[in-house]
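Dear support,

I submitted the protein below through the web form. The confirmation email said the job was done, but the results page showed an empty box. After a refresh the structure appeared. I'm attaching both so you can tell me whether what I see now is the final result or a partial one.
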Amino acid sequence: MYVAVKGGERAIENAHAWLAEERRGDTDVAELSVAQIREQLSLAVNRVMAEGSLFDPDLAALAIKQARGDLIEAIFLIRAYRTTLPRFGFSRPIETAEMACDRRISATFKDLPGGQVLGPTFDYTHRLLDFKLAADGEVPPAPMGQTSAEPVPHVTGFLNREGLIEEAPADDSDPGDLTREPLELPADRSLRLQSLARADEGFTLGMAYSTQRGYARTHAFVAELRIGTVAVEMDIPELGFEIEISEITVTECETVNQFKGSKTEPPQFTRGYGLIFGQSERKAISVALVDRALRWDELGEDDVGAPAQDAEFVLYHGDNVQATGFLEHIKLPHYVDFQSELELVRKLRREAGSDKGQEAAE
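What the results page shows now:
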């Protein structure tokens, strides 16, 4: 199609070689290992796993190294690799109530069974540069005994006892799978949550922030934010029972939102929900807020025209891999297209110029 780029194979190979050289950087500086990225850039690794839809810290760290720290490029690499993997079965739904929590907080109840577990968080730091890190100083070990190894109940269960919060809708149907089928609207809640979990963190954060500023009229409380490990179990037909095949780290957020009631529903609290691979609490909270905003129709609320209420806008524009591909394709040669538009503009200018000349003569 683009004849002008024919014969550029050597230039492309040279560009690849230059890219590899730039990725390596100064050879007098020790090269980063995949293990170092996995262990010391864990939040970046977690984001790549979440938005790449593949839980594998080693592969995510490798993708970050290959992408020179460009997380969207790393997410693209992980998704591309994921498509090559065979699928031989399905795991059972994870039981987050059985989570061994490294972090568990609630903004709605101060004293709750299992207690508040602050865990590893930036929330209470002063956001001052730590120059000790520049000196490669050793970090003192953290006090032991801060992890809640025993299962703890979900906070929303306390509200459920009094009927103050909507019941979680029962749905035994098999959820769709966005990694195998493209998104189509209208999308049910399971597909929306999948799409939001894979969406760009910055985009999701912006949508969530808009709901807090009045665009969607929802006021949320974090009922519970928990981060920890859960077992992944799989049914083995030959054995007749399930077995644990792995443990993964996830972040779960449940929000409660004010709801004055509608023609079909009584006044009560409503739910927002987010579940993300790894430690990714900003993303989980954002997903929960946007999830609640997208539920306006099923709850009988009015559509106030807020961006976060528009499922088509939110779901079709949040995927950073798709957005990057469409945006960056304009870097490719468009010589023929541009020449046609250039000739059109020249023609219009000539016609406009002749009309002006004719008016002046009259």
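Response: this is the final, complete result; the empty box was a page-load delay. The radius of gyration is 26 Å.
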